[in-house]
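Possible regression after last week's pipeline update?

I re-ran a chain I had predicted before the update to compare outputs. Posting the input and the new output here so someone can diff against the archived version. Not blocking, just want to make sure nothing changed silently.
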Amino acid sequence: MKIGLTYDLRKEYLEMGFTEEETAEFDSEETIRALEETLSSLDHEAVRVGNIFELSRRLSAGERWDLVFNISEGCHGRNREAQVPALLEAYQIPYTFSDPLTLAVCLDKAVAKSVVRDAGIPTPESLTVDSMQNLEKSAISLGTSFPLFTKPVSEGTGKGITAESIVWDMDALKRQCSALLIRYHQPVLVETYLPGREFTIGIVGTENQARVIGVLEVKLNQNAEPLVYTFANKEFCEERVEYLLVKDKAIIQEASDVAIRAYRALGCRDAGRLDLKADKNGKLYFLEMNPLAGLNPTHSDLPILCSKAGIGYRQLISDIIRSARERKAKDRVFKHDSRTSTLN
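New output (post-update):
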């Protein structure tokens, strides 16, 4: 197949004046090269496309692909991850990973929690703070059962998460919410803090074909920022974090059950990764879903998990492509329609 690669190259945005934090979710040349080489090794023709602006230009010029391997995170707004898939759907071009609705829902952590909660999946009690004026009233509704955990509602890669994200009293909650509202210009998600072990779970496949490929425990080293899997801890994970493949059958079973149910409830496709954390009694709770998981072969959680589970990078990419191809015929948006073919 001729497969287009859509992505946001971090280096390009840094050269345009974006900050390190603003580009934290974007991909390195190493990741793009790894995908390009892996697709070629699977007998596909890999074509670099780039970001949504380059995609728009090339679509307008008449260029097409059999499939687009999409890892573009987007730049602007809480629907930024949905922009490339939405454009591809308009042109009836199939692509990997979840559709625009799922991507938008998962990026808004409060909305994602509502979906999984309605599906009967445990997730910490929470509230969304959109201004300092409603903070105290909202906190009362949560019961102000400190400690609480704070983070921007629509960011990824741990952006906005620091050691100060755990707040122990109302004064600390006010300071942290104020700081996050000012810095990120979006609501703050405030959750009950869970003090137990933290896990990340990898999934490949779609709907009934979705399966857990491994459960990884995230353990912070002594030189890491304490208690929290922060932005800095993720950025320097090679030195600060130990990833341990879970072998305890009871934990694997509980984690897999919660993960698959959340994955399906949110409508995720092809592959993804989600985070769970335990309360003081060891019960696992859904934290958030990443339907567009990082694919750097050595730095991203999903490939690290696969490596520890004995699944090679080539096999992971092959499984993603296979899932996308298997559902292609089922999706109406991918079916040829002569009424619109002349428009694109």
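Follow-up from reviewer: compared with the archived run. Residues 249-265 form the longest helix (17 residues). Marking as no regression found.
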